[in-house]
Amino acid sequence: MSRRALRRLRGEQRGQEEPGLGQLGLESGPQLGQEEIPPAPAGKGHRGACVPLSAQITAEESEDERPCGAERGDTQLGQRDTAGGDNNGAVTEETEGNGRRDEEEAEPDRTAMASNKPRKKKKKRKAKKASAGEALEDNDLEDIDSLLEKIEDTNGLSPQSQGGLIADSRPLLYVEHRNLNPENELKRYFGARAVLGDQRPRQRQRQYVRSTWLTAPKNTWPRYSKTGIAMQLVDTRRGVQHFTFEHHREYQQVQFKFLDAVESMDPNNIVLLLQMNPYHVESLLQLSDVCRMQEDQEMARDLVERALYSLECSFHPVFSLTSGTCRLDYRQQENRAFFLALFKHLMFLEKRGCPRTALEFCKLILSLDPDNDPLCVLLLIDFLSLRAREYTFLTRLFQEWESHRNLSQLPNFAFSVPLAYFFLSQQEGAEPELSQARERAARLIQLALIMFPSVLMPLLDHCSVQPDARVASHPFFGLNAQISQPPALNQLTSLYVGRTHSLWKDAAIMAWLETNVHEVLHMVDAQDPLVEESEHKRKMRYQSAPRNIYRHVILSEMKEATAALPLEVTSQPVMGFDPLPPLDSIVSYTRPERTNQPPNESTLSLFFRSLLPNFNLQGDVRHEGDEEAAAGQDLNQGVNRLMAAMRDMLANIQFQEPPRDDNPDGDGDWD
């Protein structure tokens, strides 16, 4: 007997007190709908992962109920068998005769069961949770993509978008946590499956790994322990909180060993130090530069991320990355490592193809000390804004800071801001706003060409564009414009052209630039007063660049700008963990003097020390006493040591004999 016939039999027996033989198998839907069935035992799996969620729940409950219904039908039939002997045969004939009709009514019966049957809450909640869990496992990556698309839509790139209105109400240097993760940006470009691969989006990390915002800790890193760095709140003035890092005594001892390792000029000594202290920040930054020079970019990036993780683990509880109101003084020696780690991480992100994340880190660095800008990230923020298509942010920065920071006097802002307005004019929107953006772009690019005429020819050369005859032959944009500019201005223009020339290669941009170049030549030929005024400003300003610009050029490693650095900068040693420290540095602790190195060594002594590291002309450290009485004795001892050192050196010299060509066959005698 089929299960369907048994369910109908059970329905009739419950619906009527004395069911008749002729009604068995005819009353199917309503009686089954009124049935009260207890929940199925736990452990039953659900089926049909490809059907909708409601269909999964209905199918699961139907499958769970079928065995229970069959058992009940068998029991009831057994009872009726005992009570009346001929009823069982009648039931069998009736159900077998109605078999085809049962098959035809199968789908309507299931629909009636799904729609009319009341389900218990516990059963329903369990089924929903199981089915929802499977659906989330199958579609989790797609949900991430859709969520990021919604975020992209609400964060819009056009000034008319809703996201732009929200961003305008926030502080200018507001940092968003989600934009500090480069994986979010890569997912927007390539999709979650391409970024994450087969690994789960949310992997459980080791319990001792601390969750951070700046970097994602990796399982390959050593286990983190306290390094001896702490952050303290110095004071709060006008809603701005000033913090500082502090080095405890144990970290100071490691710092002294690190300085000894740097002086040895052997990177292996830094590696040995990191094996004992895997989260020493300065060692990580210095070794990262060594790996980068050896073209091991992956290891260099990993070391910088580990340094950021170490610093973030020591943050003060009230230190905020997003508020834009937390300050750090770069003059404080302990604070510089955080600035440099952020900048190096920013550069790796930009090379990795994550300009939006790099822009967020750039805003973070600028918010830590916006007045002094020790790493001069203002020379970089325009490039990142254009690459990330954050045109509204760049124009807003220019409008709000132009009055007190004179951003138009920097070549990068003078050219990048009109380029941002040009991009805004190419987007969809209301015609009055687009026309206003075009007018602003034309006016600002003409002012930039008049103020910095030496940018045009190198820019066209990097873009492989040949200027027309009028522009090439005009003296305003000729070679004289580049030769006559001050050295400091030459560094700024070289830095801008070398960094952002790829943004100007579009044909539409070149056509727009050509039109405005001819407009500028008309103004020059007409002897516009603005041309002479700009020439006077170039001669009076840009006589010497501040130290933070030199520091930025060194960290950026742009060949065009590095070649223009003055001799006083290139002649001094530059360390990756602290390039060009401020002249007014605040030093909390000093390195103790090394007692094994005698002071005031002569040139002869330094020469022999370079040959024999153990040589010491002056002997051991003198004790306090009468130096004049012992002067002759010290001189004799010095001469004796010098002679002994020369004898040892000559004794160790071995002359290699020339190879002999012996002839075993000959007798060795002359005839």
UniProtKB/TrEMBL annotation:
Biased composition (Low complexity): 18-36
Name of the protein: TCF25 factor
One GO CC term on file: RQC complex
InterPro entries in UniProt: TCF25/Rqc1 (IPR006994), TPR-like_helical_dom_sf (IPR011990)
Comp. bias regions, Basic residues: 117-129
Chain intervals with Basic and acidic residues compositional bias: 65-74
Region (Disordered): 1-134
Domain of life: Eukaryota
Pfam families: Tcf25
